[in-house]
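I am writing to request your help with a piece of structural work I have in hand. What I wish to show you is a protein chain and, alongside it, a tokenised description of its three-dimensional fold. Could you please explain, in whatever detail you think fit, how the structure tokens follow from the sequence? You will find the record immediately after this paragraph.
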Amino acid sequence: MSTLYLHAGAIPATRTDLSVIEPPAPTDTWHPLSHYDFATSIIDTLHFMGATITSENYGIKEGDTGADEFFGLIEFEHEKLDIPDGTSLGLGFRNSWTKRFPAGGILSKKTLVCDNQAFAGTDAFQFKRKNTPGLARELPSITASAMMNFLRTADSYLRESAALDRHYLDQQYGNDEGIILDHVCCQLAQEEAITWSNVRKVRNEVLRIDGPGGLFPRNGRGITFGDVMQGITEVEKLSLNPLSTPTRMSTAHRVLMDMIDYTTAEIA
């Protein structure tokens, strides 16, 4: 599940809303990208690449320009990708007309975009560009190139994502889920995938009866590594100083996959 969270001052918007918001006047070196053009360019490129859009959601922080900051999340399917039923890929993106952060995008099966600057997803693709004069012209090729690279590696990416969701922690360490989770969280902190101050928060989020974020009720099943990944996302998005950068989330993904690979090798 990919999610657009608006809880730090942004308000929901439609693409029609975006179409009537004009960007600030450009300078010689800074050309603020229209939020409408940003979203539409990505959608048009995804369509051109053979994707089927399943949902699109946007939010803006109004500020002095009427839309100082822009956040978007587009979910889609693709006939070449074996995406598990009930899920889709999420392409998140954001931009700022106050130069607070550059235009950027990230594609993942579980993409997080939040108006408190949390911007994350497990290994997939990401891009980041300043609002230079050529950005609007180059955006379609940036998106298309990234999509092509993703399609080449998508099968292995989706297999790894599925492994996170079906591999149980007790396959590695035993039956005491609390002790197992302590070990996993400490390993994540040691690898700087999460902060030490968030170890207990991640542990408690994963152990919720209704699953991380209340989205993954276990109904008697054990805890999967996918629950841990989602727990990290849920904790980091609520941080006042979000640390859910693509690099940090990729590190968490790598650490958990290494644990799965180790267990698989031991069983074999």
About this structure: The chain is about 40% helix and 20% strand. Strands lie at 3-5, 11-13, 51-61, 69-78, 89-96, 103-108, 112-114, 119-120, 125-129. The longest helix spans residues 135-166. The mean pLDDT is 79.
